[in-house]
Design brief:
The complex is a heterotetramer of chains A (316), B (482), C (677) and D (220). Chain A is mainly α. Chain A has helices at residues 3-35, 45-55, 66-85, 101-121, 125-156, 161-170, 177-193, 212-215, 221-246, 259-284, 293-315, and strands at 59-61, 90-91, 252-253. The two termini of chain A are 36 Å apart. Classes of the chains: A mainly alpha (316), B mainly alpha (482), C mainly alpha (677), D mainly alpha (220). At the A-C interface, β1, α3, α4, α5 and α11 of A face α17, α18, α22, β3 and α24 of C.
Chain lengths: 316, 482, 677, 220
């Protein structure tokens, strides 16, 4: 495939993800509203929120260091980069070999560290509280995520996402018990990492329970907008990772323009389903007590490791 | 001729100091005589190194590379110790622990002690060797009790009784040796001459020699301080004046070990190496381990280093017991570095005790502050004696251990454990004495620390580089020991 | 002429520079105005020598091994020196890191009193020289000589402030464990020797051991060197000694000295023993995993900054051992390429850790030096007072947290790649074990990130806390010039090693292939240019930190400029939102201990905690928490007690009764006579 | 073969020596101990003289003379003076009671003989069998030093040991060279003097010669 087309694909995919991410959030919220039979807000609400926030004048706490002000951009950049790594629409993109799954997890870690640091920058009790809880979630979720990805990596014998997706996507259908374990673990990680019920509740500012909201309490206006947007991209990225790992069928080859419409179509369908599913989970489950979160995540970690072991014991 | 000088000088010194030992310049005279002896021993050494072993005075005296190196060492340490004892004894006098009369006794006995040791080293007659050894005991016993304190008297009494009894056993051993020899060499003086015995050693009666060696080992081993015959040693070292502790540890033990090794050579001729070797290795190992465990319980600083001497004599005995060129080489080297290091340690310890006004280690603190030289001397000396590179003690221990590892690998774990325990014990005690806040105060006389750092410098040099002639010398001696 | 040629050869050059260090050490002791001498001349010259050593090493990696013999040492065992690829790599490490530290030291010791500075300068350069000789040594005697000299000089540096009892006990513990380790190493050489030839390393290589003895030698080497490296359970000295030393020395000890232990392990296991067995690899892996988790979990509990960093050294040693163990397992099973990958990962992490841990210790030193604080709970908001230090420290923190695109990430990435080679193993159990160790590594990495969020957030960010014991230097500024240059040098190292890994990969591949006879696969080498890092093959795994960095910077800047162009750049400053609480004091911030609370909750059983809760009636309620290492109660104290017991029994030999003493002699005599009969 | 008369005499004296050694072991009074010591010396001197006459080793006459002077006259006299000056005429208590000591002693004698017999077989001298007796008396003296509690008897035990050694030297091996004998004699003499000095020091420090006072230096 010619590189120009591939690069075009790359850019297209990145832009697509960045633009489509808020839509996914809106869709999830809408589904949840339906399930909780509230009158649902528009799917486009997140865009309007972002626009509003960008227009406002930011209020920055006294004693904030430059780190506080640069963090939102770094977060946004990290998520955007992640969106570039994950094969959302097509595999074999030129940027893919620059970073594999481990680097992908590294990007998320980078973002987490910076947001936690920024949270502690002001020196309020809430910032520290949020940062502490976020890192507590992180130190269990991150290895679980890595192990999930390793399971797939062992199956496909590669840590390149595109290679993984190729091998998983073009094999004849077979049941992988290891992948089943991995899928469950991944789901739990996804909930935790995106500040979803049962770990966190994006809808409240209840200080006993809030994690993510406590971290960004000091942010306003454009900074807040960037963070919210980054969060949306993160959710999108996670969902697409999940899709790529577990239901990769229908994704396009890099530079193959004819497969593109089909790829977009299948992707939208999968995402719609996934979003609905997420909303369903969030409706059915109750928020865990904070001190139970480690247990939730360590079970995710164990599941992931189990998946990896079953790969060796079954496919062994 | 040199032999006569080497022996005559200390004897003359003993007489002179017996007359003039109470004068103010007695210490200087003492040092001068010791230096003269040292100089003479250098002459003797050069002579022997140049044109081989010497027999003197119708074979009554015999000098070969083995004993001439000990002679040189003895004379050297005797000299440096005399230098050290100058200010030390003055301070003791001003602290009122000794009076002039006792100083006189001290000085003349010091020379006499040197004489007896040199005699023991040089004499070719096994019987005379025994006599000199007993003489060494007699000349030091009054020095150990110099302070006339109850403790010092007790120590001296134990020293006297135990060593005399031990030496008596050695005499019996000598008689047995003679008994065996005279059947080969016929009656008369020549059958006690070591050189003659050495020539006919293969024909001597094995059973008699085995008995003889047992008696000789127990006898001289008592003076070497082999466990369980060692009990006099810590008391005598702790209670006597520090210069005496220095020479006891640094020299007398060496001389006694020399006597053991000389007899071992004869016995090996008749019995082969295994018999005496296994005995010596057993005693050596026992001494090392037991002494190491004793170390951690000491409160008195000189006592502690006395136990360390036992440990090191054990190492040497083990080395000579193993035999072979490398082990014997290591044993000789260890003799050298141990006597240099240990005497240096005792020098610093003496001044440290004087500064702090006690020998109790809990009372000595923070020497670094009041006198960095003493502090560094003590800490470096202790590290050296503990076998820390780059000091020479490590060199010999390295050779002993590596030889032991492939010849008697069963023994090495004990040795290594003992070394580790000794390290923990001694360094754990020394560190708080040297570092931290101090309790000590200044001294009326500037301490003599040239000896300390001279010794440590030599030990350090030996750790990095053994000059070829010295190595050749050791090799010859090792060859003699076999 | 030949002498000149010898001096120009790597071995000669390294020797000359090491001797130069010794010369500086001696020169420091010359009394005339030695403070100024040490500050202006000795340390900078030492740094220059360090750079020289680094260049010599870099050059020597590509040359065949060179030997040199000095007419010193034992009469029949002169000093053998040898520079092969492995030694060259570690020389590079030593030189480059020590250069930065020396520059820093020139600034750090500026207010030292003359006499003390003379001693420090002397011991410091002896320390450097001894480390160089450890790497150069090619016979057991010289090696032990240099090894113990290294321990000794560093011990004296540790107890520089010997007035404090805690520092003295730390120094003692350090020297004791170091000495015991050295004894084990000596024994190991003895086992390797096998009874023939001398003790030059060539003879040790030549000696053939049967399996049992080889295993004994391996265990002795592993635990002997491990005592210096700080592996479980011999780590106890490390968190005591590293904080006690002056910060540049801590940086050297943590950055370089404990790496010489890794060097020793690799040298003995891969070079001297030769035939590596996979069971050994498993031992290394298990110990390594334990060390990793232990180190990071205890680091999370610390509030003394340097102590925390020391615990992280323990953790990173564990990570290095993980890589090393994987390499040994693969080599043991005969997979050369994978084994090389593991070894490379280990060595790369050795280098990386040297760089960023050195940087972090220097940063901690600057904090201590300018504000007199070492307890995190007394710090806060330092980023405003010392922004430059804060910047360098941030780089170090990101690097150690294994975040791309810095260097810590690269080596952990390589370790993961080594673990992912597990599929090629035949032995099912081992194959399924390796991923578990990878999981440990992942967990440790995440925990490290958490720990350094804590450190950076508590120390540099937030508002200044009113310290429990107020800082001696309240209004201190940023680190001085020399200190900053030192830190900048190492920070640059973090970026260099992070962004151009493939060039270092080639160096390490050379080292590994010289050691094990196998390098990475051809396609890996062909695929990895200056831009791409490819350990096995392009479709299996690849990573390009440079592209990564470019992309992330690009998108971040893009976002920034777009936002700035489209919208206004105005901002208003106000008090932080107080959530309805009228006053928010700086005491309401999380302390370091508070930050560790979730870990205490999750991993509670690992710690030995003593909590004291304030009573209801207390005027100034204080909640204190003391966390201790269980190993003290499991290992160290019992051993001490046992020794005490034995000695107390042996002491019964000497009860002061002369009759008993005579009886001993008597019985000995009789017994020997019986024995003879 | 018919053993020559001189040898028989020597053997008798040897037996006497052993007997005296036993007597010392069992003796409770200091004065008697000293007397016994003198007698032992006398027996030693006589036996030495006999050996000298029977073998015609002239230097043995000197050593016989020396022994007589030193061990029969001089040393006993010194000891007498000492205990007169120090008023130590009391009975001696021992660590173990006398019968046990005797039993151990007998055991020692048997052991010594067993040890010495094979050697004696190969001896070239007339008086070969005496070696065992000499060894026995040495060991008995050793035992005596162990069981006695006072300083003076310990010293006497030491001197008795020297006697045994002398006997071994003269009878078993026609005497050591004269130099050695002189040296040994000198050492013994000086030793006795130093012991004497010690008695006074100990007395003035502990105002008793009981060595139980000298058990301070020990490991705790």
């Amino acid at each position: 495939m010619n590189t120009a087309a591939a690069i075009a694909f790359q850019i297209l995919q990145s832009v697509f993800v960045v633009l489509a991410a808020p839509l996914l959030v809106g869709w999830v919220n809408r589904c949840r509203a339906w399930l909780q039979n509230r009158s649902a807000p528009s799917v486009l609400l997140p865009y309007w929120t972002l626009a509003k926030l960008f227009h406002k004048e930011p209020v920055i706490a006294r004693g904030a260091s430059p780190l506080f002000r640069t963090t939102p951009y770094i977060l946004f950049g990290c998520m955007w980069l992640a969106a570039g790594i994950v094969p959302v629409l097509a595999t074999g993109l030129p940027f893919a070999p620059a970073a594999d799954i481990i680097a992908l997890v590294g990007v998320f870690a980078l973002a987490r560290v910076f947001s936690a640091l920024a949270a502690m920058d002001i020196g309020t009790s809430f910032g520290g509280l949020g940062a502490r809880r976020e890192m507590m979630i992180g130190f269990l979720a991150e290895p679980a995520m890595l192990m999930t990805l390793f399971t797939a990596a062992f199956i496909s014998g590669s840590t390149q996402l595109t290679t993984i997706v190729d091998t998983l996507g073009h094999r004849e259908f077979a049941l992988y018990p290891s992948l089943a374990f991995a899928a469950v673990a991944f789901l739990m990680v996804l909930l935790a990492e995106n500040a979803r019920i049962p770990i966190d509740n994006p809808a409240t500012h209840l200080e006993l329970t809030m994690i993510h909201e406590a971290m960004i309490l000091e942010y306003s206006a454009r900074h807040l907008a960037l963070i919210e947007w980054a969060v949306a991209i993160k959710l999108f990225a996670y969902m697409t990772i999940g899709i790529a790992l577990f239901v990769p069928w229908g994704i396009a080859e890099g530079g193959d323009w004819h497969a593109l419409p089909l790829a977009i179509g299948t992707l939208v369908a999968k995402l719609a389903l996934a979003g609905a599913g997420l909303a369903l989970i969030e409706t059915l489950l109750a928020k865990l007590r904070l001190l139970l979160a480690p247990e939730f995540l360590s079970s995710a970690f164990l599941l992931a490791v189990l998946g990896m072991l079953t790969h060796f014991l079954v496919q062994g | 001729m040199e032999v006569a000088i080497v022996l005559g000088l200390p004897l003359a010194g003993a007489l002179l100091l017996a007359l003039a030992g109470h004068r103010d310049w007695a210490p200087e005279l003492n040092a001068t005589m010791s230096f003269a002896t040292f100089f003479a021993s250098i002459l003797l050494t050069t002579r022997v190194v140049a044109d081989g072993p010497i027999l003197a005075f119708d074979e009554q005296f015999f000098v070969d590379p083995f004993n001439v190196f000990l002679v040189a060492l003895t004379a050297f340490v005797g000299f440096t110790t005399a230098l050290f004892s100058r200010p030390y004894m003055r301070i003791e006098q001003e602290h009122g622990r000794v009076n002039v009369a006792r100083l006189r006794l001290y000085h003349s006995m010091y020379q006499l002690f040197t004489f007896t040791m040199l005699l023991c080293l040089l004499s070719n007659n096994v019987g005379a060797m025994w006599v000199a050894m007993e003489g060494a005991t007699l000349s030091t016993v009054l020095l150990v009790s110099l302070y006339r304190t109850p403790a010092s008297l007790e120590a001296a009494w134990k020293y006297f009784i135990l060593c005399s009894v031990g030496i008596a056993q050695a005499l019996f051993g000598t008689i047995l040796l003679y008994f065996a020899a005279e059947k080969v060499l016929g009656p008369g003086g020549s059958s006690l001459l070591w050189t003659h015995l050495h020539e006919v050693r293969a024909q001597l009666e094995p059973t008699v020699l085995s008995l003889a060696f047992v008696f000789l080992l127990v006898g001289f081993g008592t003076k070497v301080g082999l466990v369980p015959l060692h009990n006099w040693l810590p008391d005598a070292h702790a209670e006597g004046p520090t210069p005496i502790s220095a020479v006891l540890s640094g020299l007398l033990l060496n001389v006694a070990l020399y006597a053991v090794v000389r007899s071992k050579v004869l016995v090996d001729g008749a019995l082969g190496r295994d018999f005496s070797g296994s005995l010596m290795m057993g005693f050596g190992l026992l001494s090392v381990v037991v002494a190491a465990f004793f170390l951690s319980r000491q409160k008195d600083i000189k006592r502690m280093f006395a136990y360390s001497s036992i440990e090191h004599m054990g190492i040497m005995t083990f080395a000579f017991g193993m035999g072979g060129p490398v082990a014997a080489f290591a044993g000789l080297l260890h003799m050298t570095v141990h006597s240099l290091t240990k005497s240096a340690i005792f020098f610093t310890v003496g001044h440290a005790a004087q500064k702090a006004g006690t020998q109790n280690m809990d009372g000595i603190r923070g020497l670094m502050q009041v006198s960095p030289t003493i502090g560094w001397g003590l800490v470096l000396g202790s590290l050296a004696i503990l076998g820390m590179p780059p000091f020479g003690v490590f060199t010999s221990e390295f050779m002993v251990l590596t030889t032991a590892m492939h010849e008697h690998s069963w023994a090495t774990p004990f040795l290594l454990i003992a070394l580790g325990i000794a390290f923990a014990a001694i360094f754990g005690r020394v560190q708080p004495m040297v570092f931290g806040e101090t309790t000590a105060q200044r001294l009326p006389h500037p301490p003599a620390l040239i000896p300390v750092f001279a010794h440590l410098a030599i030990v350090l040099a030996l750790g990095l580089y053994i000059p070829p002639y010295l190595a050749a010398w050791y090799r010859q001696a090792a060859a003699l020991i076999g | 002429m030949s002498a000149l040629h010898a001096a120009l050869s790597p071995a000669g050059g390294a020797l000359a520079l090491a001797v130069l260090w010794l010369a500086i050490a001696v020169a420091c002791l010359i009394p005339s105005r030695n403070a100024a001498f040490a500050r202006r001349f000795a340390f900078p010259l030492g740094a220059a020598a360090g750079i020289g050593v680094a260049f010599v090493g870099l050059q020597a990696v590509w040359l065949p091994a060179q030997t040199l013999t000095l007419p010193l040492g034992l009469p029949d065992l002169p000093f053998h020196l040898r520079v092969d690829a492995l030694a060259a790599f570690f020389l590079m490490l030593l030189g480059s890191v020590s250069a930065g530290v020396s520059v820093y030291a020139a600034g750090y010791f500026r207010e030292e009193a003359s006499g003390r500075l003379a001693l420090i300068g002397c011991q410091y350069h002896v320390f450097l020289a001894s480390m160089a000789f450890v790497l150069l040594a090619d016979d057991a005697y010289l090696f032990m000589l240099a090894w113990e000299t290294m321990a000794l000089s560093s011990y004296f540096l540790v107890i520089t402030d010997h007035k404090q009892p805690s520092i003295r006990s730390a120094g003692f513990l350090y020297l004791l464990i170091a000495h015991l380790g050295a004894i084990a190493v000596l024994l190991c050489f003895g086992v390797l020797h096998g009874g023939r030839g001398d003790y030059s390393f060539d003879a040790l290589r030549a000696a053939h051991l049967q399996r049992g003895w080889a295993t004994v030698a391996f265990l002795l080497a592993f635990f002997g060197f491990g005592a210096k490296a700080g592996i479980l359970p011999l780590h106890a000295w490390l968190p005591e000694a590293h904080p006690a030393a002056p910060s540049p020395v801590s940086a050297l000890m943590s950055g370089v000295m404990i790496k010489t232990a890794i060097y020793g392990m690799v040298r003995v296991i891969f070079d001297l023993i030769g035939s590596v067995r996979w069971e050994w690899g498993l031992v290394v892996l298990v110990i390594g995993a334990g060390t990793t988790l232990f180190g990071v979990l205890y680091a999370l509990m610390q509030h003394d900054l340097k102590r925390l960093l020391a615990y992280h050294s323990v953790e990173n040693i564990g990570i290095i051992l993980l890589g090393l163990g994987m390499g040994m397992v693969f080599v043991g099973f005969g997979h050369g390429a994978a084994g090389a990958l593991g070894l490379i990962a280990a060595l790369y992490h050795t280098l990386n850790h040297a760089v960023f841990k050195g940087l972090l210790f220097l940063g901690a030193g600057s904090i201590l030096h300018s504000s007199g604080l070492r307890n995190l709970n007394d710090m806060g908001g330092l980023i405003h007072r010392m922004p430059k230090t804060a910047f360098y420290f941030l780089i170090g923190a990101l690097a150690i947290s294994a975040l791309p695109p810095l260097n810590g990430f690269v080596s952990e990435w390589l370790t993961f790649q080594a673990a992912l080679q597990a599929t090629i193993l035949q032995n099912g159990i081992v194959r399924s074990l390796l991923p578990l160790f990878a999981a440990t590594l992942a967990l440790a990495g995440a925990l490290t990130a958490m720990c350094f969020v804590k450190v950076y957030g508590v120390a540099f960010l937030g508002r200044a806390r009113e310290p429990a014991h107020p800082s001696p230097l309240p209004h201190a500024g940023d680190a001085g010039g020399m200190e900053r240059y030192g830190m900048a040098w190492l920070a640059a190292g973090c970026f260099l090693l992070g962004l151009f890994p493939s060039s270092f990969l080639l160096v390490l591949n050379r080292v590994a292939s010289r050691l094990t006879g196998h390098g990475l696969s051809e396609q890996a080498l062909s695929a990895s240019g200056w831009l791409w890092l490819v350990p096995t093959s392009a479709e299996q795994a690849s990573y390009s930190p440079l592209v990564f960095l470019v992309m992330i910077v690009a998108v971040t800047l893009l976002a920034f400029f777009v936002v700035r162009r489209v919208y206004h750049g105005r901002a208003r400053f106000a008090d932080p939102w107080d959530c309805g609480y009228p006053e928010q004091t700086s005491r309401m911030q999380d302390t370091a201990d508070a930050f560790g609370q979730p870990i205490r909750h999750v991993f509670g059983p690992l710690y030995r905690m003593e909590r004291t809760l304030p009573g209801p009636g207390e005027a100034t309620p204080r909640y204190t928490l003391k966390i201790e290492d269980r190993h003290w109660y499991w290992l160290y104290l019992p051993v001490a007690r046992a020794a005490e017991y034995v000695s107390s029994k042996i002491a019964l030999l000497q009860q002061g009764r002369i009759s008993i003493y005579l009886l001993y002699s008597f019985i000995t005599l009789i017994a020997l006579l019986v024995f003879v009969r | 073969m018919q053993v020559p008369f001189s040898t028989q005499l020597v053997n008798v004296l040897a037996a006497l020596l052993l007997l005296i050694a036993f007597a010392m072991l069992s003796q409770r009074r200091v004065l008697t101990l000293i007397k016994l010591l003198a007698w032992q010396g006398a027996a030693l001197a006589v036996s030495t003289a006999i050996v000298a006459s029977s073998t015609g080793q002239t230097h043995l006459y000197y050593s016989a003379l020396l022994t007589a002077l030193l061990k029969v006259i001089l040393i006993p006299w010194i000891l007498h003076r000492l205990i007169d000056r120090l008023f130590v005429r009391w009975d001696i208590e021992t660590l173990i009671n006398i019968p046990t000591t005797m039993l151990i002693g007998i055991g020692l004698v048997i052991f010594a003989f067993a040890l010495a017999t094979p050697i004696s077989q190969m001896a070239s001298t007339l008086t070969r069998s005496t070696l065992g007796i000499a060894l026995a008396s040495v060991l008995l003296a050793f035992l005596m030093m162990i069981v006695r509690r006072k300083a003076v008897p310990q010293v006497i035990g030491f001197l008795a040991m020297e006697n045994g050694l002398f006997f071994a030297a003269t009878s078993a091996t026609y005497g050591m060279p004269l130099v050695v004998e002189l040296g040994v004699a000198l050492d013994v003499l000086v030793g006795t003097f130093i012991f004497g000095i010690f008695f006074f020091h100990i007395r003035e420090q502990f105002d008793s010669l009981d060595i139980r006072h000298m058990e301070k230096l020990k490991q705790d």
